[in-house]
Amino acid sequence: MNESSHALIEKSFTFQDCEDSQSLTVSIPEVLDPQYGMYVWPCAVVLSQYVWMAREELQNKTVLELGAGVSLPGVVAAKCGAHVILSDSAELPLCLRNCRRSCDVNNLPDMPVIGLTWGRVSPELLSLPAVDIVLGSDVFYEPEDFEDVLVTISFLVRRNPHAQFWTTYQERRRQRFGHRIFLQMLLDLDHTCNSSKLEKTGNSQALSTATPDLNS
Ligand SMILES: C[S@@+](CC[C@H](N)C(=O)[O-])C[C@H]1O[C@@H](n2cnc3c(N)ncnc32)[C@H](O)[C@@H]1O
What we know:
The chain is α/β, with parallel strands linked by helices.
């Protein structure tokens, strides 16, 4: 795909907290192209809202976003005080460029953007610093990729035993039971799961998982 043939539009997203009247607005450039990773998916809005509500927990934490695309959750986490690393497939340079563009538009020029292809134990994966939270919005959309996504998540949470994985997924008609398969796979990997349905989010769900604390 030649990106120059596609127009860019910038969308603003505002997150508010009714309890203390704080708010955050970020801008995300989207590419007018139907391919994955070119625009903000509904799951990204849900995960960003979850990130915003958990912002106190994120202060100075190291956060890695997988399959970030235009990177709304990662940008929100960075604005909330986390050290964020954005990633998308090493084979999709245009998606990596979208990550970079979202950093630049939000005045986050130093935010690292790396190519991480799910299921691959690459030098980029091996050289990551310690990670506290892994974000993945709508990364469970192609059942044939589920195993690769889980290989990467499993690698990360085993390497960082206190890390949590925060994800949102959409229940789609064509993969009605897909979410059950990946939930079962997470449980098979001995992760504990907390699932919370945010209000007014349609059929997107937020889920956080962590390896159990064997000392407690
Ligand atoms: C459905 S889009 C979601 C994008 C973004 N997280 C959001 O919610 O707006 C899936 C993302 O996964 C990325 N992706 C697809 N296959 C991948 C792979 N094998 N490894 C890493 N990322 C991949 C795509 O480039 C795309 O950005």
